[in-house]
Amino acid sequence: MHAWPASEVPALPGTGRDLRIHDTATGSRVTLDPGPVARIYVCGITPYDATHMGHAATYNAFDLVQRVWLDTKRQVHYVQNVTDIDDPLLERAVRDDIDWTALAQRETTLFREDMTALRMLPPQQYIGAVEAIPGIVPVVERLRDMGAAYELDGDVYFSVESDRHFGEVSHYDAALMRRLSAERGGDPDRPGKKNPLDPVLWLAARDGEPSWDGGSLGPGRPGWHIECVAIALDHLGMGFDVQGGGSDLIFPHHEMGASHAHALTGEHPFAKTYVHAGMVALHGEKMSKSKGNLVFVSALRREGVDPAAIRLTLLAHHYRADWEWTDGVLQDAVDRLGRWRAAVSRPDGPPADALLEEVRDALADDLDTPRALAAVDRWVELQRTEGGTDDSAPGLVSRTVDALMGVAL
Ligand code: 5CA
Ligand code: ZN
Fold first, then answer.
1. Percent of the chain with pLDDT over 70
2. CATH code of the region 20-282
3. 287 CA: nearest ligand 1 atom
């Protein structure tokens, strides 16, 4: 699949800081130490209802990770998937009486447009589950042949007991794992499984559902977790720097993915660091497609809201916090954008070199965007009240917020 066009990242003087970020698996802040090419896999959308503010907030977090890396003069190898075949997509297509491929295509197109408008950097590989099937089949066959997977009425399940590191991403207890498995696409109550938590790797063809050639597995379609593992291993290999997603992916998705990869390769870890963004809520509940309490990026754009204001709304919240979308938080961002634009439109202003370093410090410290915005606010306020004579300052402020936070003033 093609991704979306990259917005330019302006050059900044000097060099940024190494990123310290909260790692879910160790429960602590770690300083990332990527090579000259930092490797990141971010789980993509299931394209049946895109792009809501929760999605946008999560992709914003991982866009910042990349911008901090780029500022340290590294290159970034970024891979993202599209879950363009899975139960929820098929269910929505039936509900809305639309062809599932048309639904997936429509929503993926919208997602690309939203990501472009929000100045999110595109992945180098943007891979759909369907196009990844020829690579997924041999991976599932291998897991089965090595005894890490088993068959149940034609479906193939992964045995969580085959990975001695199982549980080390989420550290959740068995009861919570079981509850989340049931809520998030698993089938812990299906009789005949070795362990109720075992996730499906390959689902044998069902009547009325699309299916693909599965070689020795028979016709069917892939399970969810193995999709991301096959794509990540194909393009990034084991031990890549960051796997990212929202906190609802900690379990089962990222736990199972890690276990699949450990079993498959005999190596550990799958990702060196697991990073998770908080959940955005609307009216007191997590924004989710299944609940339908959504605010769409595209709807706001259509109403004439500047994408830079949407992005500033996201940046005003720490990426790990759960927060609530309200008209008030958007209005605050619209007002802030107006103040910032007025301040950088003047020909000169107070020196901004210290501001650049403050923004760098804040972002390198677990992506502390509220602190970064506060630093810009202070410069803007000084510009308004006292002004200054540094004629390079307004340009430097513009380039700082664009290069490091994707906000075009
Ligand atoms: N296709 C899978 C990942 S392989 C998937 O979870 N798709 S999704 O469309 O449901 O979600 C895409 C990303 O948005 C995931 O990282 C998910 O954690 C994140 N996300 C979903 N809802 C919210 C929300 N309300 N707040 C923050 N992030 C969210
Ligand atoms: Zn994923």
1. 100
2. 3.40.50.620
3. 25
